[in-house]
Every structure is written in structure tokens, then in C-alpha cells.
Amino acid sequence: MDAHVDKDPADMDEHRPTPPESHAVGGIMALSMPYQVVLAVALAVAGVFAFVHLAMVFLHVAPSNTLTKRHGQAVDDWVYPEFEQNWKLFAPNPLQQNVSVEARAELRTEDGGGRTSGWIDLTAQDIEAIRHNPMPSHAQQNELRRAVDFYLNSHSDDHAPSGMRGRLSEEYMRRIAVLRLDALPGDVRRVQLRTVTRPVPAPGWSSEKTDTAPSYRDFPWWTVTAADRPAGADRSSTEAGR
């Protein structure tokens, strides 16, 4: 007769299969409730911003429609100047001219004499600042172009200003020139600007003949005022010489 041996419950527990451990909670659910709320709000704000931005850019580049006619100013306020879109590269008739802005100045020298500087290519200065610069400023890219467009669109062919906008565009152009020419030796008394248009030559494989001779459009001479000079400039000599 076999003897019955009672087993210790502790020994039985050692051989009992261990239930599989539950998977550890990760991701957002691993955070505490306050952090989950903050993260959810941040994601929602980012999603709304992305949707609004894409909608504004779409309306900006889309053909004129009911929404752009009604909310065009709001779209422009959102897009300009940081998110400006320019699709001229993909237009059926891309730009075929390079337009640069040049300036010169009438200077009063230290000995009381006067001289006129040569023409200085302001556009070339901007191009040099942009080249090899991964993050060029909007001023370097657009200031001169926008200033010239502003001036030409608010003046007649004989440079007569069209109301207040025309006079403002003259002040804007004049102050840009004074800032750029401030390093010249002497006291800048008057400035003049001009645009130089150079047609882009046809590619070598094309049989098209292009006249690449530059054309010039001279702006009037403008007298520099104290308000045109950079902050901190010595304005007393200018006022005394008038």
C-alpha cells in the first residue's frame, strides 16, 4: 500500500505557471493626466495653426473667388511678408529681364568742395549678401524690388507723384539710398537713383537673337533732409548748409 504524502502548499506555488505580465503602458498614456492634457492642447493648437496656414496660402495662390474677394485683406495680412509666394518661375512666360537699382550722390567734402560719386549698384550688394547665405533677410531679397515697384506704380512716366502714396514712395526710395551711401567719404547732400534693365540672353542651344544692351531709367535728384539720415548722424552740418 502506497503511503500518501501531503505536499506543502508553498512547494506547489513554486511550480505553478506564472501568469504573463501585462504590457507596460507607453506613449502619451504613460504621462500623468495634467501632462496628457497639456500635450493634447499643444497638438490641437499646432493642428489648427497648420490648417489655417495651408488654407491662407491656398487662397493666396488660388484664382480670384468669393472667399478671396471677401477676405482678401485678411489673407494678405497673414501671408505678407514672411510667407510670400512667387510662382513666376512656373509661369508660361517667365521673366526675361534682370532689373537692378543703382544710386549716386552729390557730396560735400571736408574742404568745402563738392563732387558727384559714381553709380553704385545696390542690387549687386544685395546679391552678394544673399549668395551662399542659407537664411537671407527679406530686406536683402525684396526691399529694392518692392521700393521700385511702389515708386513706379505711384508716379507717372515723367515722375509726377500720384498723391500721398507717390510722395511716400519718394521718401522711401530716398532713405534707402541715403542708408546705402552713408559710407561714402563726405556729406551726402543729394541722391539720384536709376533702374538698369538687362535682357537675359538666349541659351546657347537656341537660335533666338536677343538684344542684351541695357536700358536706363533715371529718377530725379532728391535733396537729402535731416529725417532721411541714419539715427545718430550729425545733422547740424546739413541744416547749417541750407
Provide structural commentary.
With 242 residues, the protein is α+β, with helices and mostly antiparallel strands. The protein is 41% helix and 15% strand. The chain has seven helices and six strands, in the order αααβββαααβββα. It has helices at residues 9-15, 33-61, 66-79, 122-130, 138-153, 163-181, 236-240; strands at residues 97-108, 114-116, 120-121, 187-199, 215-218, 222-223. Strands 1, 2, 3, 4, 5 and 6 form a six-stranded antiparallel sheet that branches. A hairpin with a 5-residue loop joins β1 and β2 (114-116). α5 (138-153) runs antiparallel to α6. The chain is extended, with a radius of gyration of 34 Å. The protein starts with 8 loop residues before the first helix and ends with a helix. The model is unreliable at 235-242 (pLDDT under 50).
List the helices and strands and how they pair.
Blueprint: H1 9-15, H2 33-61, H3 66-79, E1 97-108, E2 114-116, E3 120-121, H4 122-130, H5 138-153, H6 163-181, E4 187-199, E5 215-218, E6 222-223, H7 236-240
Helix pairs in contact: 2-3, 5-6
